[in-house]
Specification:
The protein has 142 residues and is α+β, with helices and mostly antiparallel strands. The chain is 26% helix and 18% strand. The protein has helices at residues 2-9, 21-24, 50-56, 94-101, 113-122, and strands at residues 43-44, 68-76, 82-86, 128-136. Strands 1-3-2-4 form a four-stranded antiparallel β-sheet. The radius of gyration is 16 Å and the shape is globular. It starts with a helix and ends in a 6-residue tail after the last strand.
């Protein structure tokens, strides 16, 4: 996750302005893809390179800015803070992914959509921290 955050905050591959490597004598991290090429899985627990992001990204539901692509993120606070990146083309809303993969099998049931929305977006004791990692083509910002 650290490499992903560095990658996202620095503007993506090839841009090192956010990290001054000349002062430290270190090189920026190399991007190592973790998802099999062109596999388009239901989710990833790590994104290691731009191709991983591209396999899980979709146009956001609110595409008011052209050229934006997003991956929905979920942190499951009841599963040790486990981080999930969902295939946002296949699961366009957080509920779709949570109900399919994070409900039952030893974990609490997610419930219906209206209860999920009320609890997970507004309750202080929510189970999930929901978000999105978005890349804006112009100005090439994360």
């Amino acid at each position: 996750m650290i490499a992903l955050l560095w990658w996202a905050c620095s503007g993506g591959p090839g841009e090192t302005d956010a990290v001054d490597t000349a002062d430290t004598g270190t090189s920026p991290p190399e991007y190592v893809c973790v998802l099999p090429e062109a596999s388009y899985p239901d989710f990833g627990e790590t994104l290691g390179c731009p191709d991983d992001f591209a396999q899980l990204a979709s146009a956001p539901l609110d595409a008011s800015i052209p050229g934006a692509r997003s991956v929905k993120t979920l942190v499951d606070r009841l599963d040790g803070g486990r981080l999930w990146f969902s295939n946002s083309a296949r699961y366009p809303i957080h509920y779709d992914f949570a109900s399919a993969f994070l409900s039952g099998n030893g974990l609490p049931f997610v419930g219906d959509l209206s209860a999920f929305n009320a609890r997970e977006y507004y309750a202080p004791d929510r189970r999930f921290l929901l978000g999105a990692l978005t890349h804006y083509e112009e100005p090439d910002a994360w």
